[in-house]
Specification:
heterodimer, A: about 500 residues, mainly alpha, Helix Hairpins, 2 domains, about 0% strand, B: alpha+beta, 6-stranded mixed sheet, 5-stranded mixed sheet, 11 strands, about 30% helix, elongated
Chain lengths: ~500, ~190
C-alpha cells in the first residue's frame, strides 16, 4: 500500500480501471482467439464434410455413369446415357474441387492422383462399351462387359474412395474433437476469466476505495482543520480589519487636526517672518545705538584712566605725608626720650632741677600728645591711603570693568551685527518655513485624501474579511459534509 | 575728609593751647607726690620700671659685640662719653632671647645698660598704685611689686635686683659651660 500512497487519485483510478480493462481485454482477446479457433475448426469440419460429400459424389457419379452405360447397353436407348454424360462432365470438376479441398492433405492428394487415371480408364472403358454397343450392338458390348475389367476398376475406385473417406472421417473426428476442446476452453476462459476479472475489478475497486477513503478522508480532515484555523484567522482578520478601519478613522481625524495645525503654523510662520523683518529693522537701529554707546564707554574709559592716575598721585602724596609723619613721629619719640632723660637729670639735680623737671614734663606731655596726634594722623593717613588704595583698586576694577564693558560692547556690536545677520537669515528661514508649511499643508491634504482612501480600503477589507469568514465557514461545513460522505466515523 | 581735617585742626589748637598754658601756669607743688614709670615690653611680657631706677633712656644705639661667657651680654655701647656693657633684659628675666632689642636704659645704680624690645610710654602714678606682690611668679624676684593704674596691671621691675642678678647669672653660665666641656671631654 505504501507503494501507491504517493500516487494521485487520477493515477490510482487510471491504474485501477486500466488493470480492470486489461483483464477484461485479456479475457476478450483469449475468447476472441478461441472463437476464431472454433470457427476455423468448424470450417475445417465443414471442409471434411464437403470432402466426404465430394468423395461420395465421385463414387455416386461413377455409379451413375456405369448404370447409364449398362442401361444403354441393355436398351440401346440414348436417354440412359444422360447420367454417363453428366458424370463425364462433372467428374473433372468434382476431382478439381477435391484437390482444392484436400490441398493441405498430401495423402489425399496422392490418392486423388492415383484415382484420376483409374477414373479416366473406367470412363474410357464405359465409353468403349457404349461405342461398341452403338456400333456393334448389344452382344459385343455385353461380351466386353462380362470381362470384369470394369468391375475391377470400379472396385479400385471404391477402395480408394473408401480410404479417402476414412481419412476424411478421421480428420473430421479429430477436428470435431479440437473444436469441442476449443469450445470448452473458450467456455472456461469466459467463465473463469469473467469471474477472475470480476474479482480483480472488485479488489481494485476495494483497494482504490480504501486508499482514497483514507487519504481523501485525511485530506478532508486536514481541510476541515485548516478551515477551522482559517476561520479563526478570518475572524482575527475581520477584527483586525475592523480595528484597522477604526484606527484609520482616528488617523484621518488626527490628520485633519494636523492639517488645521499646519495651517495655523503657516499663519504663525507668516507672522514670524513679519516679526523677524521688524526685528531686523530694530537690530539695524540697535546697531547704531550700540556704536554710540561704545563711543560713550570709550569716553568713560578715558575718564576712569584719569581718575586712576589722580588716585595714584593721591596715593603717592599720602605716602609722602606718611614719610613726613614718620619723621614727626620719630621727632616726638626723640622728644619724649629727651623729656624723660631731662626728667631723670632734673631729678638728679635735686631741688635746683625741679623747675626744669616741670618743663621737661611739659615737653614730655607735649611729645606724648604729638605722638598721639601723630598716631591719629597716621591712622587718618592710613585710612586715606587705604581709601585711596581701595579707590584705586575699585577704579582699576572699574577700568577693567570698563575695558570688559568696552570689549563686551564690541562683542555686543559684533553680536548685534550677527543678530542682524541672523535675523535676516531668520527672516529667510521664516519665509521658507512659511512656504514649506504651506507645502506641508498641501501634502497633509493629499495625505488626508490618501488616508480616506485607505480608510475606505480598510472598510472594504473588513467587508472582504467578513465574506472570507463566511466562505471559510461554508468551506468548513463542506469539509464536514465531505468527511461525513467519505468517512462517517471520522466525521463524527 | 572735611570732618577729619576739622578734627585735626581742633586737636592742633588744643595742643597749642595746652603748650601755652603750660608756660602760663605756675609751678606745681605736687609734682613729687607721684612716681614716674616707664612702660616697656621685654620679649612679649609687659613691665614697668621706675624712672628713678634709670640714668637714661636711649634708642637705636650701636651695640658693639664683645666676646664673653655671659649669654645676656649683648656688647658694649657708648653713652655720653662712657662705655657701658649692654645686657639683654629678657635673657636676664629668663625669657626667650629676642633679636636686637632697640631700646636701652642705663641703670641708675651702676653703669650697666639693659636692652629691651619696646618702650610704650611714660606714666605718672600715685604711690599707692604700686602695691607689693603676694608671691613672685617671675624670675628670681625681679618684680616684687605690681602697678595698678587706669585698669592696667603690670609688674614693676626692680632694676637693682636685676643688676644684682648679673653675678649669679655669670656663675650659672660658667657652671653650665664647664659642665658642657666636661661632657664633651667624656
Amino acid at each position: 500500500m505504501s507503494l501507491f500512497s504517493n500516487w494521485t487519485v487520477g493515477r490510482r483510478l487510471i491504474a485501477g480501471f486500466g488493470l480492470s480493462a486489461f483483464t477484461l481485454l485479456l479475457i476478450a482477446l483469449v475468447s476472441y482467439r478461441n472463437a476464431n479457433l472454433l470457427i476455423e475448426n468448424d470450417a475445417l469440419v465443414d471442409l471434411s464434410h464437403q470432402v466426404r460429400l465430394e468423395l461420395a459424389d465421385v463414387l455416386s457419379v461413377m455409379k451413375d455413369a456405369e448404370t447409364g452405360q449398362r442401361g444403354y447397353v441393355i436398351s440401346g436407348d440414348e436417354s440412359y446415357l444422360e447420367p454417363y454424360k453428366a458424370a463425364v462432365n462433372s467428374l473433372p470438376t468434382t476431382l478439381a474441387d477435391l484437390r482444392k479441398l484436400t490441398a493441405d492433405t498430401p495423402e489425399q492428394q496422392r490418392r486423388l492422383a492415383s484415382i484420376a487415371p483409374i477414373i479416366d480408364a473406367k470412363l474410357e472403358e464405359l465409353k468403349n462399351i457404349i461405342d461398341l454397343r452403338r456400333s456393334q450392338g448389344f452382344d459385343a458390348a455385353a461380351k466386353l462387359v462380362v470381362t470384369n475389367a470394369g468391375k475391377t476398376q470400379m472396385d479400385q475406385i471404391r477402395a480408394i474412395v473408401a480410404a479417402a473417406d476414412q481419412e476424411a472421417r478421421d480428420v473430421l473426428k479429430q477436428r470435431s474433437e479440437e473444436a469441442r476442446a476449443s469450445a470448452d476452453m473458450t467456455e472456461n476462459i469466459i467463465l473463469w476469466g469473467g469471474l477472475a476479472g470480476t474479482l480483480a475489478v472488485c479488489a481494485i475497486g476495494w483497494l482504490i476505495t480504501q486508499s482514497l477513503s483514507q487519504q481523501i478522508g485525511s485530506a478532508v480532515g486536514q481541510v476541515r482543520n485548516s478551515s477551522t484555523e482559517l476561520q479563526a484567522a478570518a475572524n482575527q482578520q475581520a477584527s483586525g480589519a475592523k480595528e484597522q478601519a477604526t484606527a484609520m478613522a482616528e488617523i484621518s481625524t488626527t490628520i485633519s487636526e494636523l492639517l488645521a495645525t499646519s495651517r495655523q503654523i503657516a499663519e504663525s510662520a507668516q507672522r514670524v517672518a513679519q516679526n523677524a523683518e521688524e526685528t531686523a529693522n530694530a537690530a539695524r537701529s540697535g546697531h547704531g545705538t550700540v556704536d554710540q554707546t561704545h563711543e560713550s564707554i570709550s569716553g568713560i574709559r578715558r575718564q576712569v584712566d584719569q581718575i586712576v592716575s589722580h588716585m595714584l598721585e593721591l596715593g603717592k602724596k599720602s605716602q609722602e605725608i606718611g614719610a613726613v609723619l614718620d619723621i614727626v613721629s620719630e621727632l616726638a619719640e626723640q622728644t619724649n626720650i629727651l623729656a624723660i632723660n631731662a626728667t631723670i637729670e632734673a631729678a638728679g639735680a635735686g631741688d635746683a632741677g625741679k623747675r626744669f623737671a616741670v618743663v621737661a614734663e611739659e615737653i614730655r606731655n607735649l611729645a606724648d600728645r604729638v605722638g598721639g596726634s601723630t598716631k591719629e594722623v597716621r591712622a587718618l593717613i592710613d585710612d586715606v591711603r587705604s581709601a585711596v588704595n581701595t579707590t584705586v583698586m575699585a577704579t582699576e576694577t572699574g577700568s577693567k570693568a570698563v575695558d570688559a564693558g568696552s570689549r563686551q560692547f564690541g562683542d555686543l556690536a559684533s553680536a548685534f551685527k550677527q543678530i542682524a545677520s541672523l535675523v535676516a537669515t531668520t527672516t529667510d528661514a521664516a519665509r521658507e518655513i512659511e512656504l514649506s508649511t504651506k507645502q506641508q499643508s498641501t501634502a497633509v491634504e493629499q495625505v488626508n485624501v490618501a488616508v480616506a482612501n485607505v480608510t475606505q480600503a480598510s472598510v472594504e477589507t473588513e467587508t472582504s474579511a467578513g465574506q472570507t469568514l463566511q466562505t471559510v465557514s461554508q468551506m468548513a461545513s463542506l469539509s464536514r459534509d465531505l468527511l461525513r460522505i467519505i468517512t462517517p466515523h471520522m466525521a463524527a | 575728609m572735611t570732618d577729619a581735617r576739622a578734627g585735626l585742626a581742633k586737636q592742633a589748637a588744643k595742643l597749642r593751647a595746652a603748650f601755652d598754658a603750660a608756660y602760663a601756669a605756675p609751678p606745681r607743688r605736687d609734682a613729687a607726690a607721684g612716681q614716674d614709670l616707664l612702660t616697656i615690653r621685654a620679649g612679649s611680657e609687659p613691665y614697668v620700671i621706675r624712672v628713678s631706677d634709670i640714668a637714661g633712656l636711649f634708642v637705636d644705639r650701636k651695640i658693639t659685640p664683645v666676646p664673653a661667657n655671659d649669654a645676656s651680654l649683648l656688647g658694649i655701647a657708648g653713652f655720653r662719653g662712657t662705655i657701658v656693657p649692654v645686657h639683654s633684659l629678657p635673657v636676664l628675666l629668663g625669657l626667650p632671647a629676642t633679636h636686637a632689642p632697640r631700646w636701652l636704659v642705663i641703670a641708675a645704680a651702676t653703669s650697666v645698660a639693659l636692652a629691651f624690645d619696646a618702650f610704650e610710654g611714660h606714666l605718672r602714678v600715685r604711690s599707692d598704685s604700686i602695691v607689693p606682690q603676694q608671691s613672685s611668679a617671675r624670675g628670681c624676684g625681679f618684680a616684687p611689686e605690681f602697678m595698678h593704674h587706669a585698669g592696667i596691671v603690670r609688674p614693676v621691675l626692680h632694676l637693682v635686683s636685676v643688676i644684682a642678678s648679673l653675678g649669679c647669672h655669670r656663675a650659672q653660665t660658667a657652671i653650665h659651660e664647664r659642665n658642657e666641656k666636661h661632657e664633651s671631654f667624656q
